[in-house]
Write a structure and sequence with these properties.
Elements (H helix, E strand, L loop, with lengths): L2 H10 L9 E2 L15 E2 L2 E3 L5 E4 L2 E4 L5 E3 L7
The structure holds zinc ion.
């Protein structure tokens, strides 16, 4: 396993949640309270490789806080 593969695995499966908060149902605006703009999410793609759907529950890639991911305004 090379270093890049190892880094991605550690990003997707963090072990340190000492800074994590439960921020679900609060608006993050796409930025976690720690300042990170990257989130871990469960997503699905359609046959055109566009995002088909994603779960609104996500996790901050830096601090591990649970967040409600932003979503498009349906109106
Ligand atoms: Zn965070």
């Amino acid at each position: 396993m090379d270093e890049q593969t190892k880094a991605i695995r550690e990003l997707l499966h963090p072990k340190d949640y000492t800074r994590a908060l439960d921020l679900r149902d609060t608006s993050t605006g796409g930025v976690c309270v720690c300042g990170c703009e990257v989130f871990i999410a469960l997503i699905s793609f359609d046959e055109y490789n566009d995002i088909s759907f994603y779960f609104l529950d996500g996790e901050c890639a830096d601090c591990g806080s649970m967040v409600t991911l932003p979503y498009p305004d349906p109106y």
